[in-house]
Amino acid sequence: MKYVKQFLIIIGISLAGEILKYILPLPIPASIYGMAILFIALLTGIIKLKDVRETGKFLIEIMPLMFIPAGVGLMSSWGVLKPLLVPVSVITVVSLVVVMAAGGLVSQAVIRITRKKNGDNYDE
């Protein structure tokens, strides 16, 4: 019953995200709203981590299984996607490099700010 309760909590938050998607006129997916709600609820203590931990771990463990239908869909649409292979590959590589660079720069900035806040003045 513990897993059912935890799953219902996660589903309820997902439903709240879906409702927000239809109420707010922003181009944000419902899943992002749901994750933000869950994050805020966990930070504020409205939901305790122990109330969703096991089911969350289970959902993360089976996540690769969820990509199988998408992969099959790509394989069955190969005729349509073949002419777009080069542009999509270039866009993917460029965006990957940009995201990695931005993530690295943000991480370095956060580390510097944290060190200054803690009084550490050394760079490694």
Characterization of this structure:
The chain has 124 residues and is mainly α. 78% of the residues lie in helices and 0% in strands. It is built from seven helices and no strands. It has helices at 2-23, 30-44, 53-61, 63-66, 68-76, 78-81, 85-118. The protein is extended. The model has no long low-confidence stretch (mean pLDDT 91).
Classification by helices and strands: mainly alpha
Mean pLDDT: 91
Shape, please?
extended
Number of strands: 0
Tally of individual helices: 7
Unreliable stretches covering 5 or more consecutive residues:
none
Share of residues in helices: over 70%
Membrane topology: Multi-pass membrane protein
Protein name: CidA/LrgA family protein
Main location: membrane
Transmembrane segments: 7-24, 30-47, 59-78, 84-107
Layout of helices and strands, plus pairs?
Layout: H1 2-23, H2 30-44, H3 53-61, H4 63-66, H5 68-76, H6 78-81, H7 85-118
InterPro entries: LrgA/CidA
Membrane topology: Multi-pass membrane protein
Main location: membrane
Keywords:
124 residues, mainly alpha, 7 helices, 78% helix, 0% strand, extended
In short:
The protein is an all-alpha fold. Helices cover 78% and strands 0% of the residues. The protein contains seven helices and no strands.
